[in-house]
Amino acid sequence: MAEKPSPSVKSSKIGRYVLLAALCIVFIGVGIWLILKKSEKPAKIPQLTSMAGAKKRMAVPSDKVIDYNKLKDRTDQALTALMEERKAPYGVEKSIDMIVMPDESIKVGKETIQMKNILDEVRLRQGEIVETDLTGESKSKGKEDAFGIHVVQPNENIWDIHFNLLKDYYDHKGIHLSPLADEPDRLGYSSGVGKILKFSENLVHIYNLRKRRLETDLHHIYPLSKIVIYNMGRVFALLDRIDYKDVNRIEFDGETLWLPAIQ
Question: What are phi and psi of 107, to 5 degrees?
Fold first, then answer.
């Protein structure tokens, strides 16, 4: 007859089983932890990488918006003061509504547009090459200038808009410009002021805010739909070279404005 195992042998076997079971539980727990740890990485890392990439690719629009609506209603004192400061050197208190920089945006009515978009179209129209860097900023040759904006009102025409700018300019210099200064003389010849106004049409651009494009006339005006854009540097560089006492000696051939030499 076989001998029965002693109590000590039974206890040692039970201890081994318990130890093996404990080790199995530990190994299974470690395995599950490793699986869960690995499954977390693909979900988190691509999301962080994607957000970082989006920030690099996204062109951040300028937050400097010159709001014509607030200027007209005088509801923003800081903006009104800024415009007065910018207008002061030119003496264009009435004829120009806003003076903006190339990195700013303008808001007229419900339309908001970045100046750089308008200027890019102007340069393309003039045959210039516009380069855009990786941040979305446009680059072009030459120094950027300040730009005067006149918001076109119903029944205005480009001639009167230019004349009001010229009148503002000479008032600032203490020179009174007659309301008839742009009228032809008795023989039908253009006055000096009239020639300046005709030439100045080449220095400005008309932009349709609704259709987002340049235009060549001011017909079919809807309220707050079109603006006249002056390159302040170019316009006033021209005016500063003209001595008003010689204004009636000015000649204009349709393209070039000049002052003949005194014989």
Answer: -125, 125
